[in-house]
Design goal:
Blueprint: E1 5-8, H1 18-33, E2 37-40, H2 54-65, H3 92-100, E3 104-107, H4 111-123, H5 146-155, E4 160-163, E5 174-179, E6 183-188, E7 196-198, H6 206-216, E8 221-225, H7 232-241, E9 248-252, E10 255-256, H8 266-272, E11 281-282, E12 289-290, H9 300-308, H10 323-329, E13 340-341, H11 344-357, H12 360-373, H13 380-390, H14 399-404, H15 416-422, H16 427-439, H17 446-460, H18 464-476, H19 484-491, H20 493-507
Parallel strand pairs: 1-2, 8-9, 10-13
Antiparallel strand pairs: 3-4, 4-7, 5-6, 11-12
The protein binds glutamic acid.
Glutamic acid binds near residues 10 and 43.
Length: about 500
């Protein structure tokens, strides 16, 4: 495929939903697969919905995911600027060109008038649509005389520019388009409305800015969410009216709720306890905070892998893919038409796989900041050994702390239920003897302590449970943790003895 140029074109209206991240990912994979460019364009023409920290959030999120763009705000701006608000002066010319070729018109209807029409229609159970069937009864340059239009503009009357979506005498009844995922899609022109292209505030609408920029930035393929499919006929009609070659289109399926029907929303995440945003986000207006995958301990590779398979499949059983492997395997023909159900459990599974596949040294590096937060400054070699003992039972890096904090902090409390069950009147006496046995051991390796202690237990005919369970409780504070003698070897002789002494002291 030649000169593939795709873009991710988010509107900075808030944090990026995981559906948006997936759109960016598929664009990136498609571009890289075909040796093309992936462009980030910020679509910020709607001033009313603009949120100041959203652009930074989008860029940070893409960076965390490892989805790097080739061109975008502040980067390789050869078709720049890449922020639509900075391209403001560029769009009116095209709206006017469409007027001069008879494809668009000035409309002077006020917001109140349009509202009254809407209400009128609603009262009769109908929907008000501004289009071919009523445009010459409304206040616009198709219904007013040329002089009056000129006069109104000269007077500074507010106007918008609308696209003439359908002219029954000229246009075919249907508009057909090819979607790379859905195949042929057909739209009845008579049902479509005359969308506003240019607003009274001097800004283009999304539709005009979007197609002008895709054209000027030489975009070859538009890969975007299914929610934009209804805009496709307008976009195709605009390319035709401007006599531009349109890019190819691919509309991605929705990401669906884990339970029930419909699109995955923030509410589902809040209800079922998982994030729907890549990073934590704090709304700068009401200070409301949304959870993020990064902050909850997900590895970006796991997150991306999960997202890639949400709507695309490789055609094989393989599930674990690096970004490079995804790039090699990705194709739009394996993107499904129907929605993909999000699974929080599967997302955790991916994280677990990636964590388990990382080396102990790599996991240790991730664990260090968590230890620091808990005021622990142990030797990396020691931490590495803790990691090697508890890693296999973790899904998240922070699980290492939950499962192995006792390696760093001597227990000061002992699980009440376990104590009740395992700490008997004779236990202190047994453990005092265990201390003597341990004191006599030179080689404090896991194998040797196990061998010596077990031989002692057998010779004393005490019963393993009576020794092992209270011993574990003394060392860990609960009846959990890896192989007891691995714990003993790692914390060492002095600490082992100190912990047993403390337990005897506390539990009597
Ligand atoms: N600005 C639109 C959005 O926020 C872009 C849609 C498109 O890719 O054409 O999703």
């Amino acid at each position: 495929m030649n000169n593939v140029r795709v873009r991710f074109a988010p509107s900075p209206t808030g944090p990026l939903h995981i559906g948006g991240v997936r759109t960016a990912l598929y664009n990136y994979l498609f571009a890289k697969k075909h040796g093309g460019e992936f462009i980030l364009r910020i679509e910020d023409t709607d001033q009313t919905r603009y949120v100041a920290n959203a652009e930074k959030y989008i860029i940070d999120a893409l960076e965390w995911c490892g989805i790097s763009f080739d061109e975008g705000p502040g980067k390789n701006e050869k078709y720049g600027p890449y922020r639509q608000s900075e391209r403001k002066g560029l769009y009116k010319e095209y709206a006017e060109r469409l007027i001069s070729t008879g494809h668009a018109y000035y409309a002077f209807d006020t917001a109140e008038e349009l509202d009254a029409h809407r209400k009128d229609h609603e009262a009769n159970g109908k929907t008000f649509i501004y289009n071919w069937h009523n445009r010459n009864k409304l206040t616009n340059s198709t219904s007013l005389s040329k002089e009056e239009v000129g006069q109104r503009i000269a007077n500074g009357d507010a106007y918008v520019i609308r696209f003439m979506m359908y002219q029954p005498e000229i246009d075919a009844a249907t508009l057909d388009a090819e979607d790379l995922i859905r195949g042929q899609v057909s739209f009845k022109r008579e049902l479509l409305d005359d969308k506003v292209l240019f607003k009274s505030d001097g800004m283009p609408t999304y539709h005009l800015a979007n197609i002008v920029d895709d054209h000027l930035m030489c975009i070859s393929h538009v890969i975007r969410g299914e929610e934009w499919l209804p805009s496709l006929p307008l976009h195709i009609a605009l390319y035709e009216a401007l006599k531009w070659t349109s890019p190819q289109f691919a509309h991605l399926p929705l990401i669906l709720k884990p339970v029930g029907k419909g699109k995955l929303s923030k509410r589902d995440g809040d209800k079922l306890g998982f994030p729907v945003f890549p990073l934590k986000y704090t709304n700068d207006k009401n200070k409301e905070t949304s959870r993020g995958y990064r902050e909850e301990g997900y590895l970006p590779e796991a997150f991306i892998n999960m997202l890639a398979l949400l709507g695309w499949n490789p055609g094989t059983e393989k599930e674990l893919f690096s970004l490079e492997e995804l790039t090699a395997a990705f194709s739009l023909d394996r993107v499904s038409k129907s929605g993909a159900k999000f699974s929080p459990e599967k997302t955790k599974w991916f994280n677990q796989q990636y964590l388990q596949n990382r080396s102990n040294a790599a996991v240790t590096a991730l664990f260090l900041p968590i230890l620091k937060q808990h005021g622990i400054a142990s030797e990396p070699a020691y931490i590495n050994q803790v990691v090697s003992l508890v890693k296999e039972r973790t899904v998240f890096v922070h699980d290492l702390w939950d499962l192995g904090s006792f390696f760093f902090v001597n227990p000061s409390e002992f699980d009440a239920k376990a104590t009740k069950k395992q700490w008997k009147p004779f236990t202190a006496e047994i453990l005092k003897n265990v201390m003597t046995v341990f004191q006599g051991i030179e080689d404090f390796s896991s194998e040797n302590t196990e061998k010596v202690l077990k031989e002692w237990i057998s010779s004393e005919e005490i019963g393993f449970g009576k020794v092992m369970q209270p011993l574990r409780l003394s060392l860990v504070g609960a009846l959990k943790g890896p192989h007891l003698f691995d714990i003993i070897a790692l914390i060492g002789k002095d600490n082992t003895l100190a912990r047993i002494a403390k337990a005897i002291d506390t539990l009597g």
